[in-house]
Design goal:
Order of helices and strands: EEEEEEEEEEE
Strand content: over 45%
Structural class: mainly beta
Distance between the termini: 40 Å
Number of strands: 11
Mean pLDDT: 96
Number of helices: 0
Shape: globular
Length: 120
């Protein structure tokens, strides 16, 4: 079955960096767009970033553009999100999600999330 498992979250100071990962299994990873989506407790979901199947095209929300970098390793079936210059407002539960073969969505499968907390 399709599985997405995030890891790498934690506590980091403002201005710091963190890389979260999403290990996948149960499907042909290289056939699908992948996204990162985050959720602040008590608030709605915010799409953060997406990447196409080959990794050559990336997309970002304005709130993270220039600070976050999405990437994928199709040989390892793993998705990454490098987060730099972190701000307290980046604090959230970060989910990876599988998209379609030709576009971001629909986001049909999600991981359980990894918590990122930005605080001094």
């Amino acid at each position: 079955q399709v599985q997405l498992v995030e890891s790498g979250g934690g506590l980091v100071q403002p201005g710091g960096s963190l890389r979260v990962s999403c290990a996948t299994s149960g499907f042909t990873f290289s056939d699908y767009y992948m996204s990162w989506v985050r959720q602040v407790p008590g608030k709605g979901l915010e799409w953060v970033s997406a990447i196409n199947t080959g990794g050559g095209s990336t997309y970002y929300a304005d709130s993270v553009k220039g600070r976050f970098t999405i990437s994928r390793d199709n040989a390892k079936n793993t998705l990454y999100l490098q987060m730099n210059t972190l701000k307290p407002e980046d604090t959230a539960l970060y989910y990876c999600a599988r998209g379609g073969s030709y576009y971001f969505g629909p986001l049909g499968y999600w991981g359980q999330g990894t918590q990122v907390t930005v605080s001094s």
